[in-house]
Known about the structure:
- The chain is of the alpha+beta class.
- The chain is built from three helices and ten strands, in the order E-E-E-E-E-E-E-H-E-E-E-H-H.
- Strands 4, 5, 6, 7, 8, 9 and 10 form a seven-stranded mixed sheet that branches. A three-stranded antiparallel sheet has the order 1-2-3, with no helix packed on it.
- Strand 2 and strand 3 (30-38) form a beta hairpin.
- Helix 2 packs across helix 3.
Amino acid sequence: MFELINRMENYSGPIFTAYTDKIKMPDGSVIKRDVIEKRHKASAVIAVKENGNVVLVRQYRRSADGEILEIPAGVIDEGETELECAERELEEEAGLKAGKMEFMFQFYTSVGFCDEVVNIFLASELTPGVQNFDEDESLVLEEYLIDEAIEMIFDGRIVDSKTISALLGYRVYKEKLR
Length: 178
């Protein structure tokens, strides 16, 4: 049995808190682990147009020191469901509304040290909405066929984990529906 013995807070900010945990292992030994606890879960959307194109957004990410190609995504606001967040982010970032929104799966972004969970939704039957970027966003919309987007994973043009997971997950999901 694993037992948390002690938790020491190292940092607390608006997005996350960092801790060092002491954990008693099943063999009785004690180890230390650093853990990042996120304030909010997130939702992300793979939006597929009628012509089969997937909608991606290109935006600057400081942690990567460059522009990254991603699916629309964002944190779940207080009182908002995972689905409501996905619908809001799709319209805010891509200017689209979904006639059909399906939950596909969720995953931990980096379970080795962080508790962040992202919910992936599939949006279809898309109609125009109104883009409304957050004050810190500057996005450019791009569209790709699913095969091209997946190729972009393997040649290094798509490096974002939620986008990689969603694109590959969609490919498998789509094959299962045939």
